[in-house]
Amino acid sequence: FLITRHSTLYLAKNRRVVMPSWTEHEEIKELQKSYSRNKVRTTKYTFLSFIPKNLFEQLHRFANLYFIFLAALNFVPIVNAFQPEISIIPIVFVMSITAVKDLWEDQRRRKSDQKVNNRLCDVYDRKQKRYVERRWAEVCVGDLVRLCCNEIIPADMVLLHSSDPNGVCHIETANLDGETNLKQRQVVRDLPQGSEFVPENYSSHIECENPNNDLRRFRGFMEHPGKVRVGLHSENLLLRSCTVRNTETVIGIVVYAGHETKAMQNNSGPRYKRSKLERRLNMDVLWCVILLLLMCLIAAVGHGFWLSGLQNPIYMIPDDTHPALAAFYMFWTMIIVLQVLIPISLYVSIEIVKLGQIYFIQNDLDLYNPVLDTGVQCRALNITEDLGQIQFLFSDKTGTLTENRMLFRRCTVAGTEYPHHENAISLEQYEDQGCGDADHSLTLRSRTSRKSLSCKSLSCNRSSVSLNTLTAESDTHSVHDTLRRHTPGAFSGTMECAVVPDPQLQAKLNTLSSAMRSPPRQQAAEISHILDFFLALTVCNTVVVSSPTQPRHVMPVVRTPLRSLEEMKAMFQKLSLPRFPSSLSQNTDTPTSLTKKLFTRGRSASYFPNNSPQTPIMTLQSPTTPSGTPSYTPSTPVTPALSSGAWSEDVDDIQKAKVNSADESESDDEDEAEELLYEAESPDEAALVQAAKAYGCTLLGRSPEQVLVVVPGTGPLSIPLLHVLPFHSARKRMSVVVRHPLTGEVVVYTKGADNVIMELAEAAEDGFSREVMERTQRNLDQYAREGLRTLCVAKKVLEEQEYEAWLKRHEYAETSIENREELLLESAERLETNLTLLGATGIVDRLQEEVPETIEALQEAGIKVWVLTGDKQETAINIAFACKLLRPTDHILMANCDSKETCEARLHELQHEIRQVTKEGVSEDDSSDCVLVIDGRTLDYTLQKELQGSFLELTCCCRSVICCRSTPLQKSQVVRLVRDKLKVMTLAIGDGANDVSMIQMADVGIGISGQEGMQAVMSSDFAISRFKFLRKLILVHGHWCYTRLANMILYFFYKNVMYVNLLFWYQFFCGFSGSTMTNSWVLIFFNLLFTSVPPIIYGVLDKDVSGETLLDLPDLYKSGQNSQAYLPSTFWMNILDAFYQSLVCFFIPYFAYTGSDIGVFSFGSPINGSALLIILLHQLIESRTVTWIHTAILLFSALFYYAFVLLFSLTCVTCNSPTNPLGIETKMMSDPLYYLVCGLTTVLALLPRILCRTFCNTICPSDLVRAQKMERLSAQDYSTSLRQWKENKAAQRLSSRHVPQNLSVNADMPHLTDCIAEAGAVLS
Fold first, then answer.
1. Which end of the chain is more exposed for a tag (fewer CB within 10 A), N or C?
2. pTM for this predicted structure
3. Which residues are annotated as a binding site for ATP?
4. Backbone dihedral region of 953: left (phi > 0), alpha (psi from -120 to 50 degrees) or beta?
């Protein structure tokens, strides 16, 4: 390879070049040495760097810097307040605890790293000409690594070889993203796939993008020695930490190692956010700093004036220091003395309290799901209190409000609707029998335990499946028989497989397998569409097929009575012949042409489903060359045309073949009775494949090159799979390009959102008849009104020249590195045009249990619930009625606009309508009865800067908003707009990858571990398994966490200000000299040890109202929304109360001991004792729950204080130089006056708070106080009071609600009035 040094440097900056590690190209070898090795280190520290690095990290906290500064300041002799050694105790204590915690966490990471780095894998050694074992840490970029089944992948590797003959393997990504579905990976195209891979023969080189954290993207190409480039994509990449499944051996070349792998790039650890309460706390800390500076300034000025007024006092050492300079020094001394005003222990206490709150949340049995064996996962450790202040909730619909267990309900094909009444009855009977829970459990087990056993319990040897296993199905479609014989796979629960065919549709398909029956000629086009419809459902997906004893990826070796594909084609032609008039005089078409007619492009045939006697227009032409011969010729000749006379003989041959097949099936049944398992990445795919299977179109196997299916009337057919254009949120569809096994035509099958497919079908020049299009659209609207998820299916037949032209540009897009996604998207859109509509499906996605009750409770709590979904408006409205987001009396305001100007006018029109309602004498609260329904296109306009204000003004007047046809980007934009512009607390909840951006944008993101993998959970702050758990998580735990933490923070401020003020008042009697009436040990430990544990217990265990009452009365949640527990006024009231209590605590002992001969420390003894009792009893007054734990902690704190001061007084002689506290406490406690002073001080200090609280709770009690009183009633009285409470609240809402008769509802979509009228017929 001619790669110059200049180009090497360019590539090093822009992309990565990878060649085998033994390459002789010096520039490439040096370049590969610069890449990261595979050794990983997730630890922060080393033995030498721990102390300096940890100190550096802790010094980023302002509070730590503040106290270190004060400790250092106390070492300056001229400003020190007490012993310098004592001043460093608080900061050393706090930082030591943090350092020990960090060291413990780092040691855990170190052990994990060592375990990972010491794992072994097989790496090819060119010197030894064989694979040798190496540690993961020794693997480098360019190494060829060999892995076996169930081994973990050590680095990101491009797949070069697989023991599977089709060049595929499967990986399990559960360690990476939590998804249990197996992902299929394939060998790079054009690489030789023999029984053995010879590393010496590999001489290609890879150019790919630089390391990044996108798990679903890999761009690059492999260039072979012949300068042939092959595009590389994510299907060729084996990701580190994933596990190889169902493949004996795979070989890959390492392209990213160590910290450059995508797994390590995504290893960001727990999520950290700043809560709203924490932001408020930081502001109040600044107020405390200002208060501290003010008190120090007063002391400094007072000290200066005091010195100026002295005239050579005999008790002072002569000093030449000017009073102003002395005042300056005193300012800094007072900073040291009053430092406790800033609560150093508060930050550590908050972390401890939040850990305790998380512990109780995660261990709440009411939030535990026994099916998944999981509870709540708290992934963000510092925003628990935000759960108690949510004002807006943004929810996805599918999988969040609904089960995301898709059940095929009905379909429409070629304009004819097939209601599947028996299927609907079987679904209702199944749920009435109470099988839903068991089925759900079975489904989930199939996605976890069954997947883990699929390879571990089986050998990875290839196996075959007999024909009867693949095709045998009972002719009777009893749902109970289907349930009994079902074996589940991913998204293949009992009900997913129990599809009862529609008799009319089944009868039409039976004509394909009945040799002696022929449909009327006018039905030929319809049958063609029906067959294409089910063939599209079968092949247009990424479903992986397996059986209980067969690996998922193996293409079955079918034992068929047909000896060759030619006979299969011939049989199909024989079965096709009687569908048309048998007389050759009436129809001169050959069987070959008839076969092609049956599979010809749908847009060339028009079918009218109105059963009119008119002969349908049929323009049936096959792609031909100018000479008239078919442009595609099968590799083997087609069976010659059959005369009518030969028909009976052929029928006999077919019947004999069927008998042989049945005999072989019976013998196979004795050996192995298996059933196919479908592993789907989405429940939609599984439901559609199971529906097709119920009609005889069975998916048997899949490989990168072909799909094996059974079509009614034939044996298994191998369909060449040319391309898969996966689903994309921008296209809202997926397609597969196949070569038809019988006609040889290149066919594109597409399925996707109905609005997108209908637009693409309308663009066809010779598309379906307008009548069929209209019938299909009416059926789609009816499906949506019933709450069904709709999906359209279409096809397109490509000319060979057209396909070759598209393929050339598509291959260029695949091999591009820059702008590859955009080029592939453009390529897919270029192909998916002029589609022929085949039909549409309606799939049931039922609501999760207790969703209506949960949404109703959240709305009663004052939370505005918005639903952001990609579904149709009719479907979203129906689901909204079902989950009580919408009520029959609500006014639905529709916004569907085609331009920005129309959108602006529509927004003003809706605002005017709401104002008109208000002018009619209705209170402002009536506007909450309006619900806005807006589509994705209009949402795009409203998100533009010019219309944001009007949109938000309108939504603030609505009780709820439903955004339909919204994209993932729009979801996140809506959340950000509401959060930033309205300054409200937002919560987003979803279950899929399309909800990740919305979840990350909200203040609180909640992921549901549902059917769509774990992307939402991995990106969330909290993870739950069912939507109903949101009710208790927010209304109970959210309320508790907020009120507990808010009250604890206020209590910390109170006790620190109260105690510091005692020292401040003393300065007025000591000449503002910075002296204290307490020894320095008690001064330091008072807030650090003696009074710090009770508020922690208070913050973890206190309950103002029980959980049952909070669930019964959602209105109580509004106190957290309004931040009533922590308002600015509440903060300043606590500060004023602290000032009052400090005055009482200081001056009562002062007046009691006036004129006595007690010393300074003796005077401080009753002050400290009184302060301790006041602070502890103050918390007792504020506590709503007093348990034995609270009592024990309070008694322990008091006893700990007195034990310490007594021991200190008995043993310490020189502990507080230059003073001597020996015997002071024992002498003071032996005086009865000490206890009288402490008791009187405590009562007078707490009396105003007790009286004020009693007065407020009696005269104007809050809802929380009323709820507390209700809880003290008997069970019967409680029920009566609860009923009266709800009746009063309902009466208040009813009095403020007036439903006007002249409001224009559904202005843009009049046909939606049917949806409102049918609001009672909602999903069960």
1. C
2. 0.70
3. 396-398, 685, 727, 751, 789, 869-871, 965, 971, 994-995
4. alpha
